Amino acid sequence: MAGTASVAVAFVGIATAIALSPSFAFGANALSDLGNPGHPAGTPATALAFNGGLIVGGVLGTAFALAIPEIAGALFVALWVLVHARQSPPIDRRTNAHRTRDR
Questions:
Q1: Any alpha helices (H) in the chain, and if so which ranges?
Q2: pTM of the full structure
Q3: Where are the domains of the chain?
């Protein structure tokens, strides 16, 4: 969830900064101009929305990246258990012991 949220937060921050900018044009400005309040396309409000969205998105993305090994490890263990649980010999209900192939 943090991975999706990180992209969404960054995107919303950039879109908000574009909407707040008095003179931003895709052909004339870089997106980073929105984060500079001293630039004609930037204002303090666009800088806050743009930079804040990227910072919060980056923090969420880092949290997601740090959780990947834990998630992958849990999925690997679950898959290993599912694969190997099917390979155990059946239990003989009369003796409550594992059947062997020679019986």
A1: 2-20, 44-85
A2: 0.68
A3: 2-98
| pLDDT computed for residue 8 by the predictor | 97
Two tokens, residue 25: 């044009």
Residue 12 in tokens: 């919303």
Estimate to the nearest angstrom the gap between the alpha carbon of 75 and the chain centroid. Answer: 17
48-55 long-range contacts (CB < 8 A, ≥24 apart) are: 49/13, 49/14, 49/16, 49/17, 49/20, 50/13, 50/14, 50/16, 50/17, 51/13, 52/13, 53/9, 53/10, 53/11, 53/12, 53/13, 53/14, 53/16, 53/17, 54/10, 54/13, 54/14
Site of tokens 């400005």:
29
Q: What is the pLDDT of residues 40-68, one digit of tens each?
A: 999 999 999 999 999 999 999 999 998 88
